[in-house]
What does this fold into?
Amino acid sequence: MNENKKNLKINGAVFNSKNPLIIAELGTGHNGDIIKARELILAASNAGADCVKFQLVYADEILHPNTGSVNLPGGKIRLYDRFKALESPPEFYAEIKEFTESKGLIFLCTPFGLKSASILRKMHPKVVKIASPELNYTGLLEEIATWKLPVLLSTGVSRLSDIEAAIEIFKSQREEEGEDKPISPATCLLHCVTSYPAPETDYNLRVLPNLANIFGVSVGVSDHSLDPELVPALAVAMGASVIEKHFCLSRTDPGLDDPIALPPEDFAKMVQAIRRTAKDGSKDTIDRYIAERGAALVEQVLGTGIKELAESERENYSRTNRSIHALRDIAAGETFKQGDYAVLRTEKNLRPGLDPCWEKTLEGRVVRQFIPAGEGIRLEDI
It folds into this structure.
């Protein structure tokens, strides 16, 4: 494989396993407080991050109000309501983007639907991230593909066929516009395990060079494990150009992801381990961790290299991914119209529906049987 395809290019900077991009995933840990957001950005910068990532959240783009509840320190709350509380106006994101870039960091943000994507595009980002549950969200990927920006595609709870379908959308967009340039400088696959926290032994890091060779793109890891060093360092040893890890000021903070995030001292330890790996190379790094942690553990983390669902995320397949759900009770005999359905995450309590690629073909079809609000719309329902 051409070595150039292992590079990720962002605004003139080149990232690869000799110079990995380190992303502090701040998510929604600011809870809409601009002062807390600035604190997080500064702390991430001081800990060695190159880039900070945020999530542009609108609850209606992510899930239905009937999705279910989540247990938080303050008690049980509807997941929809938790996401609703995390919504912030466009001006908030514009301000944190400006502050981020003033500190010499790359601003990265995840949209979850066409509304948040539209807001993000107006901010002129240099790079965009697609979260694992949206890897199969056809409409969102088609929109992002028109931006011609570097794209980080997270691949948690996915199969090879899911990754191939997503990559094909970006390739097709370039072909339609008469471009024969390789997709690789603009795309990076982030191997991920969709479990919170994810066991280090589920990471199967030997899959990284295989993904790079199969799809001709750069690769990285979005890491949800708790150990600050093991997965990030070994991922770089396996060729990762990007390491993303959740960041917090304290694991006792109220952010949705704070319990599995790294506080500044641990994040700095991770950065040091990554930079050492980039300098020492693959063999010396693996040998060192075998000596420090044991051959059995290192071998488990490296895995088989075969892309398959990890044990800890298998039950999430088709539930954290997107499918088509009814927004209201829809009676038998009605005709589907815009506003009756949306592409949402299913989560635990609702049933999954049709793949998002069906979204453009539902309008005008007749409903065969009653579909309760929130439930997935299945083939037998139309």
Q: What stands out?
A: The first strand starts at residue 8 and ends at 10. Residues 160-176 form the longest helix (17 residues). Residues 3-302 form a domain with the TIM Barrel fold (CATH 3.20.20.70). The mean pLDDT is 93.
